[in-house]
Please model this.
Amino acid sequence: MSSAGLDVFDDTIQKTNIWLKEIMEEIGPDRQRAYHALRAVLQTVRDRLTIDEAAHLAAQLPLMVRGIFFEGWRPAENPTKERSRDAFVAQVDERLKFIRPIDPEDAIRAVFKVLQHRVTGGEIEDVKRMLPQDLQPLWPQGV
Model:
């Protein structure tokens, strides 16, 4: 029998831990910071997507990460009208303000790298098209 009693829970815990480990490889070996980076960036991305696109992206996230993605979501308020890199980075920074300092662009790069690695290329391209164009340099190149 699995440790949680249900394979679906064990699977999502394992996948979420892999995502956090990949983020820690970029920003340092602190799981709390990795979790907060994942949460801050995913929710900032979510707020800039249409409802349909948010649902498409969420469908490719591990169940536990999907919960983080949708936590506190107010679909009627999205997508946000703000479309600049500065506003995106500022929103991530705001969501990271209660943890040990982390450069918001480092957090964005780390989470974008995991997304690029773990989500299908077509879906990533759809997400990129919905985000500010000047965020493109924060995505991994040549992956």
About this structure: The longest helix spans residues 7-27. The chain has seven helices and no strands. Residues 66 and 124 are 16 Å apart (CA to CA). The two ends are 38 Å apart (CA to CA).
